[in-house]
Design goal:
Layout (H helix, E strand, L loop, with lengths): L8 H6 L34 E4 L29 E4 L2 H43 L3 H8 L24 E5 L10 H6 L1 E11 L2 E4 L12 H16 L25 E7 L3 H11 L1 H5 L5 E2 L4 E2 L3 E7 L3 H4 L10 E6 L32 H14 L21 E7 H4 L10 H16 L3 E5 L6 H14 L4 E3 L2 H5 L12
């Protein structure tokens, strides 16, 4: 309601100003208390809530009534409605809101504090990167023109600087973006080249559809190896007989040879003499390891024939006159158990009876291919031109003893090799090492990654000499020995 009267001095004295503890934070200053009753208001005293609105017209004659139940009042600095509670529970709600706001502010400032610390840490790291200290500036600019070490940052044999050789085999190496060089960069000591004979030329590829005129054994492997090894064996006044030093591709370990595994894809007997001839650039420079009649003479490159490579031609002094092509023996024929132990057997898939380009959906062609292979003695890895006894495979004619892991060991069920499978692996390794041969399993499981890593770890720990890998980075850079689930 609107009341038209002005409070007297006596009424003002009888109605003391509300205690400061009931006032809202920031409501008004002490100076405002002096003339609060001289200012006109609309006041509704019939409600539990008291609404006050400051009049703009200071000349109006609106007068305040007696201030009965009013417990707190706020005089705003500009015209606005405000609500003042007579209920004590409202004060409690207000105080809880104040506490919540204070806690929020405290949390916010805490985050800001730690954010500033983190920002300082990041900026400090960037400062080192963009404004390196003395030793970092020297290392970054070392060898450059006008800086310390000018002309001293390289040496003749730094082709493979810092690369440590690792006993892994680059499976289907020709598939890589940079054949041969990618494997060397990763540290692999063995690379694989699938060779096909057409019109007197040796082409490289996994299948007939992948062959191209310019991808040959010479262009992808022989010529690059000659270039690398000539760089690793320079002739100078310090090394006048550089061409006789026979350093390998790895500068960190010059005595470590690189194995070139040549997979004969076409008829082995027809292909063999062409391979012997294609290796002449390496042979004439003394870069091929060979057997001198009593032992193997190590050189930077070891050539091993696999696939349809005929063992009888490898072991012959006529077809292999330099004795610098060695054989990849059948590992499954070399099982050797402990005294009294019988060779275990595991269920395994039937091997295909067709060649690389015969589809399993065409049984007539598959059978014809099998008959052709049998007639030409091209029976695949370790079986072409094979001797009657596995004792014929020795360190004089063979380097590797290999077999398909899937065909002989079988699938790894439930993420772990069985005791029977472990007995087979140990027997293979024992029998091959007894002959002085290096063990290699191909066609290893490649997925799940955890299962692949588990198989790698087991094979290396059991004594496999060369790890057949497709993923060079995972095999040579990552910690694949770390235990993970088989499904990962």
């Amino acid at each position: 309601m609107k009341v038209d009267r002005t409070a007297t001095s006596e009424e003002k004295a009888e109605q003391p100003f509300p205690p400061s503890e009931y006032l809202l934070p920031g409501s008004f200053h002490d100076a405002d208390k002096v003339d609060v009753f001289d200012r006109p208001y609309y006041v509704d005293t019939n409600s539990s809530w008291t609404w006050a609105h400051k009049q703009h017209d200071r000349n109006s004659q609106v007068k305040a009534p007696p201030y009965g139940p009013l417990t707190s009042i706020q005089v705003p600095s500009r015209p606005r409605w405000m609500m003042v509670s007579n209920d004590s529970s409202g004060d409690e709600k207000i105080m809880r809101g104040v506490k919540r706001r204070r806690c929020a502010r405290l949390g916010l400032w805490t985050l800001v504090f730690f954010g500033v610390i983190q920002l300082f840490s990041v900026l400090s790291g960037l400062l080192i990167v963009f404004v390196p200290d003395g030793i970092h500036r020297i290392i970054e600019k070392w060898g450059q023109i006008g800086h310390l070490g000018q002309g001293l940052s390289s040496w003749p044999t730094d082709f493979s600087r810092g690369i440590l050789p690792i006993p892994c085999h680059s499976h289907n190496d020709y598939w890589r973006r940079v054949p041969l060089f990618s494997a060397i960069e990763a540290g692999c000591i063995s690379v694989e080249a699938d060779v096909w004979l057409f019109d007197g030329e040796l082409y490289i590829g996994h299948s007939l559809a992948s062959l191209t005129p310019n991808r040959t054994l010479a262009s992808l492997y022989v010529d690059p190896l000659v270039s690398i090894l000539e760089k690793q064996n320079p002739t100078s006044r310090f090394n006048p007989h550089g061409n006789k030093s026979h350093h390998g591709v790895f500068d960190t370990d010059p005595e470590q040879p690189l194995t070139l595994l040549i997979d004969f894809k076409t008829s082995g007997s027809a292909l063999f003499p062409y391979v012997v001839s294609a290796l002449e650039p390496l042979r004439s420079r003394g870069y091929l390891s060979y057997h001198n009649g009593s032992q193997i003479v190590n050189r930077p490159i070891v050539v091993v024939g696999t696939g349809n490579t005929p063992f009888n031609q490898v072991a012959s002094n006529v077809s292999n006159p330099h004795q610098d092509i060695f054989f990849d023996a059948p590992l499954e024929a070399m099982w050797k158990g402990a005294p009294g132990e019988i060779a275990p057997t595991v269920p395994k898939p039937e091997p295909p009876l067709y060649g690389a380009d015969i589809d399993a959906s065409m049984p007539e062609l598959a059978a014809a291919e099998h008959r052709r292979q049998s007639a030409s003695n091209d029976m695949g890895q370790g079986k072409s031109g094979a001797p009657e006894s596995p004792d014929a495979y020795t360190k004089d004619n063979s380097i590797y003893a290999s077999v398909s892991f899937t065909q002989v060991i079988g699938h790894v069920l439930f993420g772990k090799l069985s005791e029977t499978q472990m007995a087979l692996i140990r027997g293979h390794i024992r029998g091959a090492h007894r002959r002085g041969l290096k063990v290699r399993y191909w066609e290893l499981p490649f997925w799940p990654i955890g299962l692949r890593n588990y198989v790698w770890d087991v094979l290396v720990k059991e004594g496999v000499d060369i790890l057949n890998v497709d993923d060079l980075k995972a095999a040579t850079e990552l910690d694949w020995t770390k235990k993970t689930g088989w499904w990962s």
